[in-house]
Amino acid sequence: MDKIVVKGGKTLSGEVKICSAKNSVLPIIAASILGNGECIIENAPMLEDVFVISDVLRSISAEVNIDKESNRIAIKSSGISSIEPSCDLVKKLRASFLIMGPMLARFGRVRISLPGGCNIGTRPIDLHLKGFTALGAEIKLGYGYVEARAEKLIGSNIYLDFPSVGATENIIMAATMAEGETIIENAAEEPEIEDLANYLNKMGAKITGAGTGKIKITGVKELNGVTHKPIYDRIEAGTFMVAGAITKSRIKIIGVNEEHLKPVIAKLTEMGVVIEVEKDVLILDGRRELKPVDIKTMPYPGFPTDMQSQMMALLASVNGTSVITETIFENRFMHAPEMKRMGANIKIDGRSAVIEGTDKLTGCQVKATDLRAGAALILCGLAAEGVTEVMEIYHVDRGYVAIEEKLKALGAEIYRV
Ligand code: UD1
């Protein structure tokens, strides 16, 4: 199994290019089930999660061609002949669930094995299912599977108890071909949802309000194949911003949308990092003395939970007391015990972590417990004295394209074994 080895203490410089957003590409691949004709995703990130969801589509006989040289994915859904994707693949990737909405819209039926618990929390799917039920689907649960059926989906008013990203996306996709109008209130507002809606609208859907808390979908008869280039990955960009700050460096990050990064920019600026953005290029200067801050993760436009562990790495290395409160997932501090092994002073109390920063992090062997936790441990390694080995790096490969190569190009001493 691969591990990443980091020798800390290097200052970074130069530039890094950001890929397209994993969390845009996964629902966009699922949405391609809805297209008559070929759907093409350009500039797609070549990530493990992208390969798994592509295999999920192949397991129901969609044709998915991935060109790793040109970062292009071509999907033809005309041959889909099964309503039940491979259980083993679905278990590998929770986002596989995103095929439910499109399958229901296009074929009126889907059967999928229930996602298990995962490291960062139980992550139920009740809101997805409530949405499908409101659109007229019949849901059956049993034997570890969920099956949804509908002769015809009919537009409806849906109020989400919580602005779930996945539920919002799944309901939008299901409603694209429902009869009449669907309104989702308290919808998630993440930029990736707007990107998905833009993709679906290019295909011929009628969606307005995506990116706000109220989304309106007017059903259409059919959707077509299109070509789309997804938005930049704001979490990858945020991770490299922290890499610059934690190594007290000045770096250039190419491929950002300032609007999408506002909560991260605001926190880093509050800490004393100097950030300038022009068009899609961000210049970060972390060479000043940084201050501790308090962070509370919230649905967008609040501070993203997917940046929480990386910020914990930074705060662990900044003198003073910081408090992080995680409100989205109930068990997303798995990285804290690993960071403590590196000398970080972190106390967990329920959903809050109190961090007493130190400039004396020391390298040791640590374990990536999930995708972002793994990235955060690499960041700790950049700041720590000595050598850090991050084990179980497959978690990181799910969401970062060649993270060690990008860091090495910036001047870090890092390699994969
Ligand atoms: C998506 C992102 C993930 C990010 C998360 C929150 C993708 C592929 N993944 O995950 O990287 O961390 O948004 O920004 O885009 N919940 C329910 N019932 C449901 C659905 C969700 O209770 O039916 C709860 C979850 O348990 C969790 C919270 O809502 O506590 C947020 O989950 P959600 O927004 O749905 O996250 P995902 O779509 O799974």
Structural topology:
Layout: E1 4-7, E2 15-17, H1 22-31, E3 35-36, E4 39-41, H2 48-58, E5 63-67, E6 72-76, H3 87-92, H4 100-107, E7 109-113, H5 126-134, E8 138-142, E9 145-149, E10 157-159, H6 165-175, E11 181-185, H7 191-203, E12 206-208, E13 214-218, E14 223-224, E15 227-228, H8 234-246, E16 250-254, H9 262-271, E17 274-278, E18 281-285, E19 295-296, H10 308-316, E20 320-325, H11 335-341, E21 345-349, E22 352-357, E23 365-367, H12 371-383, E24 387-391, H13 394-397, H14 403-409, E25 413-416
Parallel strand pairs: 2-16, 3-14, 4-15, 10-11, 19-20, 23-24
Antiparallel strand pairs: 1-24, 1-25, 4-6, 5-6, 7-9, 8-9, 11-13, 12-13, 16-18, 17-18, 20-22, 21-22
The chain binds uridine-diphosphate-N-acetylglucosamine (UD1).
Residues 23, 26, 95, 121, 123-128, 162, 164-167, 188, 192, 305-306, 328-329 line the site of uridine-diphosphate-N-acetylglucosamine.
Keywords: Cell cycle, Cell division, Cell shape, Cell wall biogenesis/degradation, Cytoplasm, Peptidoglycan synthesis, Pyruvate, Transferase
EC number: 2.5.1.7
Protein name: UDP-N-acetylglucosamine 1-carboxyvinyltransferase
